[in-house]
Amino acid sequence: MAEFELIAKYFTRPAQADLGVGDDAALIRVRPGYQLAISADMSVAGTHFFADIDPFAIGWKSMAVNVSDMAAMGAEPKWATLSIALPQIDDAWLQRFSAGLFACADAFGVSLIGGDTTRGPLNIAINILGEVPQGQALQRNGARAGDDVWVSGMLGQAALWLQHRLGALDLHTQDVAVLATAMHAPQPRVALGQALRGIASAVLDISDGLLADLTHILEASAVGAALDWTAMPKPLLQQSAVTEAVLQQAVLAGGDDYELCFTAAPQHRDALSALSAQLALPLHRIGHITAAAGLQVFNGEAAVVLSQKGYAHFG
Q1: Cβ(257)–Cβ(68) under 8 Å?
Q2: Residues with Cβ < 8 Å from 31, sequence gap 6 or more?
Q3: What is the pLDDT of residues 186-221, one digit of tens each?
Q4: pTM
Q5: Can you give the C-alpha Rg of the chain in angstroms?
Q6: What DSSP string describes the chain?
């Protein structure tokens, strides 16, 4: 199968664009009064996913991690391009992968408008574009001393699954199934991101681990933070027992959560509680921003010390 036959068979669909797949470039039109939000993420076999995972899940997550970046900016995801390197053309694999990719794209209103294919080690690179009202994009540099620190959803599930898969943790099959869903089918918090416009002072999505990613907000805002371990959303394991140290490492530094971490002034607590109920999405207040630099986590009076604070791409 030639390159353009592959693209036509698996990745060409009608798109919400002036010109989509098939030319040297796509043409899109941004609504008046909006800015274009642009992000990119790469997924590499053996680094970001195991090659034997269901290709549907690989397709879903490849798109979802990009949509999550739009959520963190308070943007509406609109368009994406896909560049993929394949060791060989495997029809069954491509059928499942494209089905997962488009399932996520459809769920969040994203049109695939272009990209590239080539032969090589399995590597999936997606560029995503979205729209956000002029001047309303959520950023990382607005946290102020006294702000609350919040996270959405649950943390640590994907990290526990990974430890089980690597043989470092023995978990019950029932728990593994729940954790695997968190790893392979993350749910980008797009509605939350858009609702946080005008409420949150700083926002990002959690990909490398809560502490590692929150540090980006603290550095951009020139502040520090103190977090409360007892307030953290922790995985609810039904049949497995793990030590608190393992749980702390997963929740605080495990990564692959794709939940939003954000800061907001205390005056917004009632609005955020109402928003949590409206979206049927737990929002947890886990600490506060400090004027002094640094990031500390407390379990009662004791400080929590971790061996690693997040995923290091070149560590």
Answers
A1: no
A2: 131
A3: 999 999 999 999 999 999 999 999 999 999 999 999
A4: 0.91
A5: 20
A6: --HHHHHHHHT----SSSB-BTBSS-B--PPTTEEEEEEEEEEEBTTTB-TTS-HHHHHHHHHHHHHHHHHHTT-EEEEEEEEEEESS--HHHHHHHHHHHHHHHHHTTPEEEEEEEEESS-EEEEEEEEEEETT----SS---TT-EEEEES--SHHHHHHHHHTTS----HHHHHHHHHHHHS----HHHHHHTTTTEEEEEE-SS-HHHHHHHHHHHHT-EEEEEGGGS-----SS----HHHHHHHHHH------EEEEE-GGGHHHHHHHHHHHT--EEEEEEEESSSEEEEEETTEEP--S--S--TT-
Tokens of 139: 């950023």
